[in-house]
Each structure stands twice: as C-alpha cells, then as structure tokens.
Amino acid sequence: MSDNGIAREKCVIIGSGPAGYTAAVYASRANLQPLLFTGQEPGGQLMITTDVENYPGYPDGVMGPQMMDDFRKQAERFGTRVRMELITKVDFSGPVHKVWTEAGEEIHADSIIISTGASAKWLGLESEQHFMNKGVSACAVCDGFFFRGQELAIVGAGDTAAEEALYLSKLSPKVHMLVRRDEMRASKIMRDRVKSTENIQIHWNTEAVEVVGGEEVEGVRVVNNKTNEETVLDVKGFFVAIGHKPNTDIFKGWLDMDNAGYLVTQAKSTKTNIEGVFASGDAQDNIYRQAVTAAGTGCMAALDAERYLTEKQII
User: What's residue 181's pLDDT?
Assistant: First the structure.
C-alpha cells in the first residue's frame, strides 16, 4: 500500500540490537511485515562486545557480533526486511507516521517501534579505545565476571559508578574508584555504601590519563589534579562508568523524554505519548541496560504494536 507513491508500511522498526531484532521476530510472526532500519551501528553495543556469557540459550557463551548475526537471521527468516540505513528525521504529527532515511527517502508507517539504544560515554583517551574488550569496559555487570580475583579500577562518581563499584567489589580483592573531585555526585546512601566497603579504595581528585599494557590491560596511569602527582595502578580491568547517552535526538519535540534524553513509556507497556509509537531497549531503559532486558522490551513493543494495529482495524 502507498500514499501518493510514498511507501506505506504497517510497522517500521528504527534501530537494531537485541530490542530491534526481537521486535522484528515478533512483528514478522504476527504478519506485520516489518521494515527494520539498522542505524549507524547495526547490532548496537553488542557489536563491540566480545564474550557474552549472560544471555540464555548460549551455554558456552557467544561473541557479541555472532549473537547479533543470529538475531538478524532469525528476524529475516520470518520475513523482516532489514535495511542498513539510518533514519535521520521523523514526523509524528498525524495518524500516519513519517520517517526519512539518510538518502532522503520518505516512508509512511502505521506503527513505529523505536530501538535506537544508548551509547556509553567514554573519557576520550586513545589508549581507552585501544584496549576496548581487552580489559576496558563500560559495563561491570556484563564483564566483571571475567576479572574475578583481580584488582580493578573504575571511573565515575554518580550512582551508577557507585553501584558498579559495589558489584565489582564482590568479585575483586581490591577496586580502585577514581573520582575527579573531592566529593561524589552519588546519593548519600550510595556514597556511604561505597565508603564502608573495605576493598573499595576511593582516589579523590584523581583522573585517568592512560591505560597501559601489552596485549591486555596491565594498569592505568592516574594523576592527582591537585598535586599533579602521577602513579600507575596495577589493575587488570578498567571500567568507565560516567554515563550513557540515549540515541534519541531525532525524537526531540515529538516524544516525552526524561532529563537525560531517555524515552518515557507508560507503565507496564512500551507506549509513548504518541499513539502508535512504541519504545524499547536502552533508548527507554536507563536502569538495567542488558541484552536480555532489551530483548524483552522488544517483544513487548511488537505485541503492543500488534494490538494497536488490530484495534485500529489496520490488520
């Protein structure tokens, strides 16, 4: 079906990763004939992840890129059309939603599922990128297990950094927490928990300047920004916990967001403030940010979209 020569779809999925591909599996099996746009990073953050051992169904673990390839193939098996393109503009002003590709193609859709994810914030060190997946990580819950029994360092001062430091303290004999100022931004209860944990050492007024090592991380060079004293901490893992940025900029002005840019969904659903537009995965989840929870909300979004289209008698 088309509108004045413009392609009209029952369901357009913006973004890939566990949420987008799971939504595609459910939507295609419900005969919504979904069209999925992968975005700039097909497969999302898992494409820069090596071993994934905490996703059900992979008893021996799986490489992140292989896992996303499996997800894509499963979605395509049921008829999902996958396009390696980026959606750069949307218009949710009418009952039929409009999106534009980076090439300028306009597409109309009766329902939209957003699964654009979020990107970890990094310090911007060249060595940080060099040792990515070789001891550098932005997710303690995802990767901490691989470093159990070894000294670790974590950068950050907010609630997320505090939570991840506490998580790592259960796996590591010593966790070095690098805090740029002389106080933490975390809530008082989280500050107190960190300070009372014996194997967490807080380095105040301290910044990481270089991750060092050979094939893998062997330490991190830090500087005290008051005394300018440099030292090297002997650690095997370096965790960056300075926040994430949801990839939701193109939806500003259309969809409700929190102060950080995460999409707001109605309780116990993936519905946004715009009828027929649903949000899943890390674009709307600033708490769990796991592959399995993203996949779960992708499933929810497809089911919500199916119910919406049924109620509108579109399918």
Answer: 95
Query: How much is the mean pLDDT over the chain?
Result: 94
Catalytic residue, from 69, 139, 159, 256: name it: 139
Choice among 110, 142, 299, 304 that is catalytic: 142
Half-sphere exposure at residue 145, Cβ-oriented, CA atoms within 13 angstroms: 7
- pLDDT bracket for residue 1 (50, 70, 90): low
143 and 168 share one domain: yes
Residue pair 222/209 in contact (Cβ under 8 Å)? The answer is: yes
Q: What is the pTM of this model?
A: 0.84
Question: Range of 275's domain?
Answer: 2-119+244-311
Looking at the fold, whether 10 and 79 belong to one and the same domain comes out as yes
Angle at the Cα of 96 (from 94 to 98), degrees rounded to 5? 90
User: What is the CATH number for 146?
Assistant: 3.50.50.60
Q: What digits encode the pLDDT tens for the residues 54-81?
A: 899 999 999 888 999 999 999 999 999 9
Given phi > 0 = left and psi -120 to 50 = alpha, else beta, which region is 255?
A: beta
Is 11 considered catalytic here? no
Is pLDDT of 2 > 70? no
In this predicted structure, the answer to whether residue 41 has a pLDDT above a threshold of 80 is no
Contact between residue 128 and residue 139 where contact means Cβ atoms under 8 Å apart: no
Asked whether residue 292 carries a pLDDT value surpassing 60, the answer given is yes
Q: Is the pLDDT of residue 84 over 60?
A: yes
Query: Measuring CA to CA, which residue among 246, 247, 252 is closest to residue 91?
Result: 252
Has 143 been annotated as catalytic?
Answer: yes
Residues 81 and 230 placed together within one structural domain of the fold: no
Q: Determine which one of 110, 143, 282, 304 is catalytic.
A: 143
Question: Using CA atoms, how far apart are residues 249 and 230, in angstroms rounded to an integer?
Answer: 39
Q: Let me know: does 186 contact 161? Beta carbons within 8 Å.
A: yes
282 is catalytic: no
Identify whether residues 164 and 235 lie together within a single domain: yes
Q: Which pLDDT value is given to residue 64?
A: 87
- The domain total for the chain is 2
Give the tokens for residue 95. Answer: 């009952």
